[in-house]
């Protein structure tokens, strides 16, 4: 194995990422509602020695609820069920800094992290939709900058809480009756603009110290936030050149926060349609495209672009869309979709087909070798540290990836054959987490 | 089996309810920190055909953190891990209405409820300590009445959200592309004093419709709240007469909310020390009493009574305590402890010994037959619909209950030999939940 190894995360969504997956004969749509389905996906990912599985999340029903399967499980609970059925695979849950309290959320993640023996990760999101805001007493989504402001303070509190218990705080000396060393259990005493939190957290540190921090915002504020905190970044990049530019940009920002390039893994998304021949893979993709419901897709697209397209003719180009400054939701996805439509002069129908697989993520149809080649190319040419694998249909699309693409990557020495650690932090090749108070003590002891 | 059957819930706490359990040789204190321990307890409870297992919770570390094992897992995640390893036993998690948002919490419970196929219950608490308040931006705990006011509105929102999806809303018709019937997915559109929540919830209804509601407040507001919402009530009652009075009081309030006596199960706590002879059981209890650390116990007692006892002499009676109106935390526990100390003229040392087993809950040392007799007596004499079984040490104290007391109750026809349903609602003998919109439709259809 080369010293730099690939990281693979399975992004699991219902019965697949393709928006029409649930209508395809390879899929049993009822499984989207069944926790056992997701537990099985966790087992498949672990069989493939993947770094982690990941669930996205939103705090409202999706648009046009009656036309597509909905995410029905809250990710932290669902991953806890997967934790109980697996031993190694990392478990990344999405949760919002805009509509949670840091004490409660830090605790839920710490609990998952201990239950899984150090496999938890948190995909930090700020929740960009009005529908979510309306479930939390607001008329519309708070401004982008305000959300990132709260997110930053939220992280500072969560990090302090996760450090409240030094790793060697617990003594459990039954004879003397001393459970913990009080000098190693710390309050947070955070007083800030959004939060006042005393601490300590009521969960001691997990085997990996604290959950791995993951992020997926690609706007300026998103990238700054990622450079400061994230240990893995999910991103939608359509071409190698764009991927390289994003990768260089993000890695270049790390030094500004005293971090090294290898402290953060960049994981672009890929939606792989895999078949024994290229033609078969393309035909498979086409089958899914043909099942798209235009009215559902238009609703999705309207949300991404901030303009009502539901009555727009399918065979016309996009109408004028608002300027990026008017977008308070997902700025980077807006930009990607707008650039795609304009750059390739697509009609709305064509655009919908291109977005159907992964809502803007790169779709790739090919043989197992072609998929492996593409992954290797991005990995070796400075566009990726690995991939966020987004199977278009599930479980089949994950199974075929694990059974046909992973062995090729293993044979090429790019990917592990066995886990060499047990925590997500170890899988990602990150440095061990060092508790802030242990550092202080070491410094005091040194002089 | 008689038509009225006993309900048994296992209240699981660390390595046991006795505050010195972790120091006793029957106990391995490290297990308190290990999720596998709790999963094993869930399996033992299921082997005993118990209705449910239950975790208490608080949103801060306990007082005197270094002198006792701490609860280290968040209950909803921990119960999800247990859900994955069991098939029937009910799963009751404590969560606070004071420091959560209804959308988020309703969703987490709905997720646990679906993952467990309809076994979730929620022990609704309002969080009575200053330590908790300080983790959520407050200087001290909000007033008792204000907490119950928020709790009431919280419940109204949660109940509306759990009804958002009618049970038959999901069609999943892949050929037409229709996932759900939009007429059967409802918004909540709640606008109240504490919350504005649009809905619908993004989790469809579980097999039991919604989680079972459990409550454990015994003050006037607590009992009114329980009478309105709760389907099971945990309570600390020290004598049969007190138990009968509480039982009659609570059941008598139900009609005021249009409910029947059997819509709510009253479950007093019992901390059983079980051994082959009465003398051995008493000796076992004494072993635990002898391991109490007075300084830890005084800290606990100070919290319950709202007065600093940490320097008070152990062999003196209690000093004067504040009047009940000054207690903003747990009023009913305050009253129980004060009445116990005054009624029996106990010294502080004696009081601590009496409280060590279950913090005020009834402790009972006896043979399996004596424990079964006591349970039957309360059950048949109008003091209980079952018990909240609080093993003084774990797992041993639960094992001996399941292996020696449960068979006696089964032989007497008081307790199930096999589960006859799969949901917690069924175990508790509650009526099926009827979705509010289904009622409306039925009424419209009827004319
Ligand atoms: C792979 C991927 C997964 C994402 N998952 C979620 C999610 O689960 N929930 C969410 O609210 N946003 C999610 N996002 C959106 C981002 O977190 C972020 O909010 C979005 O990119 C807007 O941020 P920006 O304005 O900084 O671009 C995801 C983005 C990517 C690329
Ligand atoms: C068996 C039992 C378990 C309880 N569990 C919790 C708990 O986990 N968390 C909590 O904050 N309060 C808990 N309580 C306290 C009650 O929920 C309630 O807050 C307390 O009795 C004060 O309410 P009151 O003022 O109405 O008496 C418990 C009480 C009992 C009897």
From TrEMBL, chains A, B:
SUPFAM superfamilies, A to Z: Bacterial luciferase-like (SSF51679)
CDD domains named among the record's database cross-references: Nitrilotriacetate_monoxgenase (cd01095)
Domain (Luciferase-like) ranges: 33-383
Gene Ontology molecular-function annotations: monooxygenase activity
Superkingdom of source: Bacteria
Keywords attached to this entry: Flavoprotein, FMN, Monooxygenase, Oxidoreductase
Similarity comment text for this entry: Belongs to the NtaA/SnaA/DszA monooxygenase family.
UniProt-recorded name of the protein: Monooxygenase
Species for this entry: Cellulomonas phragmiteti
């Amino acid at each position: 194995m080369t010293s730099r190894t690939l990281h693979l995360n399975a992004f699991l969504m219902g019965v697949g990422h393709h928006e029409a997956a649930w209508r395809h004969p390879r899929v049993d749509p009822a499984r989207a509602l069944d926790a056992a389905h997701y537990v099985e996906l966790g087992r498949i990912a672990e069989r493939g020695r993947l770094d982690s599985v990941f669930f996205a999340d939103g705090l409202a029903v999706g648009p046009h609820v009656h036309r597509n399967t909905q995410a029905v499980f809250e990710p932290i609970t669902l991953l806890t069920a997967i934790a109980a059925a697996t031993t190694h695979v990392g478990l990344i849950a999405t949760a919002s800094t805009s509509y949670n309290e840091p004490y409660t959320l830090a605790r839920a993640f710490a609990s998952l992290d201990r239950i899984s023996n150090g496999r938890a990760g948190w995909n930090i999101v700020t929740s960009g939709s009005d529908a979510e805001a309306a479930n939390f007493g607001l008329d519309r989504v708070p401004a982008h900058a305000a959300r990132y402001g709260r997110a930053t303070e939220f992280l500072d509190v969560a990090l302090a809480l996760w450090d409240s218990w030094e790793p060697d705080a617990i003594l459990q000396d039954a004879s003397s009756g001393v459970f913990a060393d009080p000098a190693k259990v710390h309050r947070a005493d955070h007083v800030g603009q959004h939060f006042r939190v005393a601490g300590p957290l009521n969960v001691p540190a997990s085997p990996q110290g604290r959950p791995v921090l993951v992020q997926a915002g690609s706007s300026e504020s998103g990238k700054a936030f990622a450079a400061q905190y994230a240990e893995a970044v999910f991103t939608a990049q359509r071409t190698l050149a764009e991927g390289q530019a994003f990768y260089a940009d993000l890695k270049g920002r790390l030094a500004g926060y005293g971090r090294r390039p290898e402290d953060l893994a960049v994981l672009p998304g890929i939606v792989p349609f895999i078949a024994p021949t290229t033609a078969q893979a393309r035909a498979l993709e086409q089958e899914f495209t043909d099942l798209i419901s235009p009215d559902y897709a238009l609703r999705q697209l309207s949300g991404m672009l901030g303009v009502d397209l539901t009555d727009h003719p399918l065979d016309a180009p996009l109408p004028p869309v608002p300027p990026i400054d008017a977008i308070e939701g997902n700025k980077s996805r807006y930009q990607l979709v707008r650039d795609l439509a304009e750059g390739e002069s697509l009609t709305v129908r064509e655009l919908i087909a291109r977005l159907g697989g992964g809502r803007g993520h790169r779709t790739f149809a090919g043989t197992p070798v072609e998929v492996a080649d593409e992954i290797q190319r991005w990995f070796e040419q400075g566009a990726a540290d690995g991939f966020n694998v987004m199977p278009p249909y599930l479980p089949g699309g994950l199974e075929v990836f694990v059974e046909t693409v992973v062995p090729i990557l293993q044979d090429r020495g790019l990917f592990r054959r066995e886990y060499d650690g047990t925590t997500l932090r170890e899988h990602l090749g990150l440095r061990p987490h060092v508790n802030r108070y242990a550092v202080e003590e070491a410094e005091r002891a040194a002089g």
